[in-house]
Amino acid sequence: MLPRVILHLDMNSYFASVEQQANPHLRGRPVGVVATMSPNGCIIASSTEAKAKGIKTGVRVREARAIDPAIILIPNDAAKYRTVTAGIMRILKSYTEDIELYSIDEAFLNLTGFVKTQAEAAAIGDEIRRRILDDVGEWLRCSIGIAPTRWLAKFGSDVAPKGQTLVLDQSNLAVHLDPRTLTDAWGIAHRLEQRLNLLNIYTLGHLRRAPVANLMTVFGIMGYELWANVNGIEFATVQSAGQPKSIGHSHVFAKRATSLDYPKAILAKLCEKAGRRLRHHQLEAHGLWLGFGLPDWAQARYGQSGGGGAETFSAPLIDTRDIFVRAWRLFMHDLPPGAIPNYLAMTLFSLKPHVDQLELWPRLKHQDAPALAAALDLLNDAFGDFTVTRGTFWGLTERDVPDRIGFRKTAGVDDAGQWTVER
Ligand SMILES: [Mg+2]
After folding, report:
1. In this structure, what is the dihedral angle of CA atoms 51, 168, 5, 232, given to the nearest 10 degrees?
2. Higher model confidence: residue 3 or residue 331?
3. Rounded to the nearest whole angstrom, what is the distance from the C-alpha of residue 337 to the centroid of ligand 1?
């Protein structure tokens, strides 16, 4: 497999720089672009000169004037910024079609297959920077991050000195991540920081070295994502409008299980519920995460609070049986011998629209799987969930798997005691 190379470009002080580009008299002076000119209006972008005085995004017009009476305030001009962005995009598109315009001043370029090394990607970054200065505007600066994952590339451009490039890979994660505070990381805000602090995690280095099983026990799939991000492991999911990014269910056992039969039946039911939602949205999954928690006695004996793991697949997961087989394998792989869990969670991720092409179905002996799954879903839609179900579910009642809010609320029981599924 080709090494992945992602380049993230972030324009610096974008709206204010575009204004300074358009009007040379503004260059070198503190400029604030505002939503409205009223005293309570907010600065939505400030120039480097204004930032140096402490006038940041979010500061009110009144406060900005108090900090520096010389501040030049300019009403925002969205059309102007879009035009400049279009000019930058034209340059980016000459390198790859695989571009994600993340916001008006940020884009991800997937250079995998276009360059062999990160050094080559850095050279492309320099060239892009030069072309923006030459062709779009000499006052426009950008920071660039280059890394094997999308998250790290964005982190790289965030922490790179303004106007420069930072290349991140496994060899320098410790240097660039470990000393930083949690909120320096893309996606970690104050509340999540507090929850991580409770686990004695205060820096990105602590997070990088935290046992992933502990993180998953506390945060579910997000725990794996946090850990994967700071360790340079790809966890991006494909997301289209209105579609879930992941589908997950979890269950805390109401009774103490004495063998693995009960967890097995619970897991089968969780997989069936996730599989039905997957098919309802006409999606296929290319990733599966499984987590389990252990009761106190097992924690004392095995020295761990839980475990689990994640796996990604090139072949699509659609059918409940396939989901269950893989989930069970992940479970057995990480379960200490003799331990019996009291909590199970599973999540399907890397979801993509499922295009039904039977002739491309990778496993011919399961040619009938999508049709069979669709037929089962139809029956269950008509007659209630679990009307037609798998042998493994035998002996379980709805009470065994009440629909708890897993990672995303989807279903419940209505006033009349009927099983309802969000559609
Ligand atoms: Mg920016």
Report:
1. -110
2. 331
3. 51
Poorest-pLDDT segment among 91-100, 103-112, 250-259, 332-341: 250-259
Q: Rounded distance, CA 22 to CA 359, Å?
A: 56
**247-421: same fold as 6-12+80-175?**
no
Nearest C-alpha neighbor of 233 from the set 248, 212, 250, 219: 212
Please give the CATH number for the structural domain made up of 247-421.
3.30.1490.100
Q: How far is the CA of 10 from the centre of ligand 1 (A)?
A: 5
**Residue 148 CA, ligand 1 centroid: distance in Å:** 21
Give 120's contacts (C-beta < 8 A, 6+ positions apart).
none
- Rounded to the nearest angstrom, the distance between the alpha carbon of 67 and the centre of ligand 1 is 23
pTM of the model: 0.62
Q: Which residues of 55-94 are buried (b: 16+ CB within 10 A; e: fewer)?
A: beeebebeebbeebeebbbbeeeeeebeebbeebeebbee
Is it the case that residue 376 has pLDDT exceeding 90? no
How many angstroms is it from 45 CA to the middle of ligand 1? 9
Q: How close is the Cα of 84 to the center of ligand 1, in Å?
A: 14
Q: Exposed, middle or buried by CB within 10 Å (0-12, 13-18, 19+), for 27? A: middle
- The domain spans of the chain are 6-12+80-175, 14-78, 182-223, 247-421
Tell me whether residue 9 is exposed, middle or buried, using C-beta atoms within 10 angstroms of its C-beta: 0 to 12, 13 to 18, 19 or more: buried
411 — pLDDT class (breaks 50, 70, 90): very low
DSSP at 112: B
Tokens 């992933």 correspond to what residue? 212
Q: 154-172 burial, b for 16+ CB within 10 Å, e for fewer?
A: bbbbebbeeeebbbbbeee
Give the CA dihedral 266, 269, 274, 279, nearest 10 degrees: 160
Class of domain 6-12+80-175: alpha beta
Domain 14-78 has CATH 3.40.1170.60: yes
